[in-house]
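ok so i was messing around last nite and threw this chain in just to see what happens. nothing serious, just curious
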Amino acid sequence: MNSEQPKQGPLAGIRVLEITSMIFGPMAGQYLGDLGANVIKLEPPSGDLTRAIGPRRSPQMGSFFLSSNRSKRSIVVDLKTSDGQEVLRRMLRGTDILLHSLRTPAATKLGLDYATLSKGNPRLIYCHVTGYSDEGEYAGRPAYDDIGQAASGLAQLQTVVAGQPRFMPTILADKVGGLHAVVGILAAVAHRALTGQGQDVQVPMFESLVAFNMFEHQWGYCFEPPLAPMGYQPVSTASRRPYKTKDGYLALLPYSDADWRQFFELAGEPQMMSDPRFATFAARQAHFREVWGEVEHQASRKTNAEWLTLLSKADIPFSVVNTLEDLTEDPHLASVGFWKVAEHPTEGMLRFPASPVQLKGSPMQMTRMQPRLGEHTAEILREYGYEESVIARLTAEGGACRGREA
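result:
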């Protein structure tokens, strides 16, 4: 893949300045880059913190960074210096979208607040990803994924299976927040196309995860006053888990009346559908513990291979329980070309997942390999009109645009 020739995408011609680290902001920036935007990642001299996380073949190129920073260019700018602040100001004049995760006081001190920037660039789409909304009581508090999971009620939900609050073994809060940021930015892009005006887009992690969590769990609190407690019980139970077979585990979810009828026929127990607890959707919802207990009993009577042979001929939702490693060889993912392999100029062959969003007319795709720290600093400075003598000074030892390898 030619990392110097970005392919055309639906956001082609839109310039994004990303000043974020970790996953929340970088994930959003990566999506925008895959959509064809010209994403410039502004990093401090030490680089994004994730450059030092995970296995790596060379310094500052850890797997954590590689997973969320494709389709971008990197420029080093030390915002603690006057030269660095001048570079930032010049870059902002030609920016369509500013995506940043600085806390509001720090952003305001740098002149990166929306009120200031919109005066000189009313078309600017300004996206601030943060822990909590600036308008709320928790404004300014630091927040990372564990904090978001705890604050949103997600960790408490794990009590039903772990006996105490636990974090999901994935950085769910960061990723949910990142997806919300993409939605907000794309909506602002559409609004600007209609009106010519940019806007302030704020995406707080806490509120994003609470909204995400409440789709099913608001339950009786959909009404005022509440008609029932919060929590969707069929998913908030220890019995909701993959079922043990004779030699492994299987996810199995008969849903409609037809599914259940066919399941009991496959299990050799067709008379079970005459049990009033299983006969209708409403009855199964009311007796979900007994229902799943019966599925558990039936699953244990056959091996995985026996169940897969039977279920593959039926229309009942099921899946084997994959390990993460299994996914690299999954036949469906292979058939849709999900896993991509490309050679990085310095990091060798890399594997990465394709975008699951399939835009048939203007597909999302990696437009650039992941940048080395400050790899495009001189190139970007030239684009903003800096003369070669100034670029040499800024990128020299101790200059505002000089990176430091860890």
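not much to say yet. The chain has two domains: 15-213+334-395, 243-320.
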